[in-house]
Write a structure and sequence with these properties.
There is one protein chain. The chain is of the alpha/beta class. The chain has one domain: NAD(P)-binding Rossmann-like Domain (Rossmann fold), CATH 3.40.50.720. About 40% of the residues lie in helices and about 15% in strands. The protein contains 7 helices and 7 strands; from the N terminus they run E-H-E-E-H-E-H-E-H-H-E-H-H-E. Strands 3-2-1-4-5-6-7 form a 7-stranded parallel β-sheet, sandwiched between helices. Helix 1 crosses helix 7, helix 2 runs parallel beside helix 3 and helix 3 runs parallel beside helix 5. The chain is globular, with a radius of gyration of 17 Å. About 45% of the residues are buried. The model has no long low-confidence stretch (mean pLDDT about 95).
């Protein structure tokens, strides 16, 4: 733990979506934010819907279905009450599937967009009034994907690539619209990261082949993605908005 004077998020109040899985990117973000002095509300569908959630150790866990605006509004209201305000929003919640277009049913396509893209909109829209009230250099960080930049092709099908491409475009538009109001909006695009979404999904031979095609010769860790998000959420990036930070080991260079 660093001392308060040097903590990058000292005094910041943050909402993070999708953090219930202890091996996921959201959990790594929560760990980094707490270590850097933030108080946080973690929103996830897996958490029980408790009537009176309590802030403990600088953190509160809240039930939220990001595909439902009503659920997002309720969760953000509870988060704001627990934290006393909102300065940082991280839209991390998401799903992935590799279904190819010839097998892709309409309901699966819609579900992907409902969670990944509409979910990002829902939480952002619910949190926006609180962010606009913040006097602590508010910031939004959204999770895109390398799949959006290279057109899917691995564990993400066309619907996944489209949903994350929409998140990237949405982030850039937010940067233009919210910049004059003092809110920054940026995006992180992870490559192949060692989470439950990827581990054991490639097969040993394909995994080794993929690693050989990555300049850094390995997959990334959730902590490495979280560090990029920490940078964009902190005042270290105070003059950066509308950017996409690639965290992919050089897997996709453009």
């Amino acid at each position: 733990m660093t001392d308060g004077a040097s903590q990058l998020l000292a005094g910041k109040r943050a909402i993070i979506t999708g953090g219930a899985n202890p091996r996921g990117i959201g959990a790594a973000i929560a760990h980094q934010f707490l270590a850097q002095g933030a108080t946080i509300a973690v929103l996830d569908y897996a958490y029980p819907d408790e009537a009176e959630p309590a802030l403990a150790g600088g953190r509160v866990n809240l039930h939220c279905d990001v595909a439902s605006m009503a659920s997002c509004e309720q969760a953000v209201t509870r988060a704001t009450q627990a934290l006393g305000g909102v300065d940082v929003l991280v839209n991390n919640a998401g799903i992935v599937a590799a279904t190819r277009i010839w097998d892709l049913a309409e309901d699966e396509f819609r579900r992907m967009l409902d969670v990944n893209l509409t979910g990002t909109y829902n939480v952002t829209r619910a949190a926006l009034p609180r962010l606009l009230e913040s006097d602590r250099r508010p910031a939004i960080v959204n999770l895109g994907s390398t799949a959006a930049l290279r057109g899917g092709g691995l564990l993400g099908g066309s619907h996944y690539a489209a949903s994350k491409g929409g998140v990237i475009s949405f982030t850039k538009a937010l940067a233009r619209e919210l910049g004059p109001r003092g809110v920054r909006a940026n995006c992180v695009a992870p490559g192949i990261i060692e989470t439950d979404m990827t581990l054991g999904k490639f097969g040993e031979n394909w995994e080794q082949e993929l690693k050989q095609g990555i300049p850094l010769q390995r997959f990334g860790s959730p902590a490495e993605v979280a560090q990029a998000i920490l940078f964009l959420a902190s005042d270290l990036s105070s003059y950066s908005t509308g950017i996409v930070v690639d965290v992919n080991g050089g897997f996709h260079i453009h």
